[in-house]
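Researcher: Please predict.
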Amino acid sequence: MPAQPALLVALLAQRCPVCRRGAIFSGWLELHPTCPACGLRFERESGYFLVAVLIGYMFAIAALVPVCVALFLKGAAVNTVFAVLCCTALILTPIIHRFARVLWLYVDQQLHPRTKAP
């Protein structure tokens, strides 16, 4: 059996938090129900990814506040700032969605470890 990739490498590659080999997503935004490699069920219960929504909000704020401040410091009009923030948010939303879910899976695995599929 090959060695597991490092934790950070597996997280950035969006791999299963248990085996670190199976892909978490089957498409751009669609999650596999279980890990293709080890069979781990990703969604433990209904509403499991609600915390990922909060993580996504934090990522979005961390990305958008510096853009907003930089634009205001350069003297941009409020309409311009609003338009740039909307476009930036639309571009970043799918990326933030994916990484918020992956990060929550890894955090939850550390808090409540599962070693194998139920």
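Model: The radius of gyration is 17 Å.
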